[in-house]
Design brief:
By secondary structure, the protein is of the alpha+beta class. Helices cover 25% and strands 35% of the residues. Strands 1, 2, 3, 6 and 7 form a five-stranded antiparallel β-sheet that branches. Strands 10-9-13-14 form a four-stranded mixed β-sheet. The protein has a three-stranded antiparallel β-sheet with strand order 5-4-8, with no helix packed on it. Strand 4 and strand 5 form a beta hairpin.
Length: 182
C-alpha cells in the first residue's frame, strides 16, 4: 500500500492507493466490523501497519483512526506500507534473538536493563512468565530490570534514535564497555 495523499502536517494519510485511507486499510487486516470506534485503544494498543525506513529498520506507524484518515504520532513520508503480524511464538522468539546477541559476552555482564512493549505483555498474558524464566535463566545471578512501556525508544542499527513499538530491547552494562541488543 502506498500513501497517495498526506495531510495534517505530514502526520496523517488521507488516501492509500488513491482511495480513502481507512477504507483501503481495514479490509486488509480483517478485523471485526465496529472495532474501530472511540474505544479502540481500550481494546488493543496494536496496529499492524508499518514500513521499512531508508536504513531497513521497521517502523510502526498508525496511532489513531479519525474518520477515513490514519493519523500518526510522527511525520510520515510516501513510502510503501506493510501489514505486520505477530504470534505468541514470535513474541517469545524476540527474546531468544536478543539473548543470542549477548551470548559471547554473558559472563562479562554487570547489569542489564530490559524495555519491552506493553502490547507484548497484553498479548502474552500469563505466558509472560515464560519470558521471565528465559531472562532469569540467561542472567542467572546478574541483576536485571524489566520495564514495560508504550513506545520504546532506542538507538537503531544505523546509530540514530528510533521509536519502536511492539519491541523487546536489552541494554547491558559491562566493566569497560557497553553492548546493547534490540
Amino acid at each position: 500500500m502506498r500513501p497517495t495523499k498526506i495531510g495534517n502536517f505530514n502526520c496523517s494519510i488521507v488516501k492509500l492507493n488513491g482511495k480513502p485511507a481507512f477504507d483501503e486499510f481495514s479490509p486488509r487486516i480483517d478485523w471485526p466490523e465496529g472495532l474501530f470506534d472511540e474505544r479502540l485503544h481500550r481494546r488493543t494498543l496494536y496496529y499492524p501497519l508499518g514500513a521499512k525506513d531508508e536504513n531497513g529498520e521497521y517502523l510502526r506507524l498508525v496511532a489513531l483512526v479519525i474518520g477515513s484518515n490514519l493519523v500518526f504520532s510522527n511525520r510520515i513520508k510516501p513510502i510503501d506500507l506493510e501489514i505486520y503480524t505477530a504470534s505468541g511464538k514470535g513474541l517469545i522468539k524476540a527474546i531468544d534473538t536478543a539473548i543470542a546477541s549477548l551470548n559471547d559476552k554473558q559472563q562479562e555482564i554487570l547489569f542489564s536493563f530490559v524495555v519491552s512493549c506493553t502490547t507484548r505483555l497484553e498479548a502474552l498474558g500469563q505466558h509472560i512468565y515464560a519470558e521471565q524464566e528465559k531472562l532469569k535463566n540467561f542472567f542467572g545471578e546478574k541483576p536485571f530490570v524489566v520495564i514495560y512501556a508504550s513506545g520504546e525508544d532506542s538507538v537503531g542499527l544505523s546509530g540514530r534514535w528510533v521509536r519502536r513499538n511492539e519491541s523487546f530491547n536489552i541494554m547491558s552494562f559491562f566493566e569497560e564497555e557497553r553492548f546493547s541488543a534490540n
